[in-house]
Amino acid sequence: MNVYDEAHVLARALKESQEYKTYMEMKDKVNANPELTGMLNDFQAKQFQMQAQQMMGGEAQPDMTQQIQSLYQILMADPLAAQYLQAEFAFTRMVSEVYSIIGEVVQPGGFSGETKAN
User: Fold this and answer.
1) How far apart are CA 116 and CA 106, in angstroms?
2) Cβ-based neighbour number of residue 84 at 10 Å
3) H or E stretch covering 39
4) What is the 3-state secondary structure (H, E, C) of 73-111?
5) Residue 52 C-alpha from the chain's centroid
6) Which 3 state secondary structure label does DSSP give 56?
7) Which of 10, 6, 31 is nearest to 20 (CA)?
8) Which of 26, 56, 71, 76 sits CB 3.0–4.6 Å from 87 for a disulfide?
9) What is the pLDDT of residues 17-66, one digit of tens each?
């Protein structure tokens, strides 16, 4: 078994998944609306900034948290934005679960089929 060949098989499976197809369809629809694209980009940039801050040990600033919550409420009131965010979440959740499966296998003692040598 060639690991690279299997990685390409996995990549094709992800690309052929309904989650990916729905996400790409919604992304195309959102990209046709520059105002909505700008709002989503702003929302995602603020989310990323807050997550990066938290990963570096900092606390989320209350004003940034409030901005993100306000933007989220505005976006969820727009049916297209809500569908896009739901599609994005479904696809990223699937990819995250695949990463978790791979992570379990490559960690020492992480694969349940392995036996430890004494």
Assistant:
1) 14
2) 24
3) helix 34-55
4) HHHHHCHHHHHHHHHHHHHHHHHHHHHHHHHHHHCCCCC
5) 15
6) coil
7) 10
8) 26
9) 999 999 999 999 999 999 999 999 999 999 999 989 888 888 878 888 99
